[in-house]
Predict the structure.
Amino acid sequence: MFSTDGGLQIIFDAMKKWSVFILLFFVQLHIQPAFSQATQPPFAISLEEMTYDDWSGLHSFAYGKWDNRWIIVCGRADGLHAFLPPDPFPVTDANHFIRMYDPATGEQWSESIYNLPLDISNQLRSANPQYFQRDNYLYVIGGYGKDSIGGNKITFPSLIAIDLDMLDDILMNDEDPSPAFRKLEDSLFQVCGGEIEILDDEIYLFGGHNFTGSYTKPATPSFTQQYTNALRKFKLNDDGTTLSISDAEIITDTILFHRRDLNFEPIMFPDEEEGLAVYSGVFQHDGDFPWLHNIYFNNDGTYFEDISFQHKFNNYTCPVLSVFDSSTNIFYATFFGGMSQYYFNEGDSTIEEDLNIPFINDITTLIRYADGTSEQIVLPISFDALLGSNAIFNLNETIAHYHNGIIKLHELNGEYDAGYIYGGIKAFIPNFTPSIASNRLFKVKIKHLPLMPEAITDLENAIYIYPNPANDFITIENNSAETFDRVILQNTLGEIVVEEMLDLHYKGSFNIDVGKFTSGVYFLKASDADKMIVRKIIIE
């Protein structure tokens, strides 16, 4: 992470949270007092600390997961980088190991990167690479670090493919890691501080910069920095032996795409249409300030800027949990800490601006409604320290979710383990601060809190049946405040072909197998002691 400087230090007490705590298992959370936000998301987020003391603190790394374990490469073991010579990014504080962690048990395994060929180990101690996982392969692209071959600090123009399945066994058995690594060089990969996502089997490498030399602030001739101002799209071909790229395309936008250290995440538009979202990022052309307008990519690759909304919180890379409710077509993205132009001042329940872009502990949710409007809500919990910057959120694969990692809120009923947050930078005060790499591990929990609607007077709209017509199964969902205790399905002769006695409450649903019935018109009746709804169904 390359940060900003300038201005006078504000004192910590100006934004310090007042100390109301609850003990939630092993973690203390700051519970914010009531404040005037008309909207809250229909779910609650909570954190349970799971930190293992012998895990290393790391940030700005790349990771993949295999057999419920995480394999981590690259990154830094210090805090926020320095700003002055002689060495703002000392090699001694790079991550020198391939690490494998089991978040459930705390077990760990490691191997020195120096047991790999030099051209591989050089890149594996870089910071802020881009990465993605496909099947059993983790692909690490670019990153900034010391090139021992050339003697300079560079942004690496290469991709490293890591066979996670093979590497898992290698680390378990203390064997030579070299067979698990392959490399492909191409100038397309010479990026750090960008982000990668996949949409329709195409790899989207957004933003970032090419940084060469030793960083200083203010800038000196000791380095060169060039923002990519681009979205780089390509396909990666990998048969397990040979790596190549095809269909490469560079889309340049010198205004909107002039960003790095951002969050680039999958999004679900209405009717479950997939897309990608660029959340905030830094820096603007005319000053060291975050971008406050988000960018959205449709599934056909077109994009647009949302100028109607300002993304005020969580402007730097931080953990993001994404949720979609198909029953309302509303999307939610929850951001955990990081650095921000704005923060919530709990003392007087106001939103404060700080152009020094301080570290924050606020957790917020961006709500994007079906009509395309958005708002950002400060949640009633926060980290108990200034955490989140360059940390990761790892999804629990057993929770109901789409293939792109977005949680299906409409399929949740109760509280679930959503995933983990690990690592990042821990700052001690908001601005111009000493800091360290965090080893803290949190389990993230999500609890669906359905918003009970007003009683529906038009009962025909109380029950939602889909698909209709149907030829296999139908789903019956209750969208009202009423509770139905009996559902029957009748044919046109009045014969009852299905009868269910149940407790069908708000957002409750169940399925009926209609594949065995003769094609034709049927009638579904949902009732309780004093009311009945009748809906016509066509079975094909």
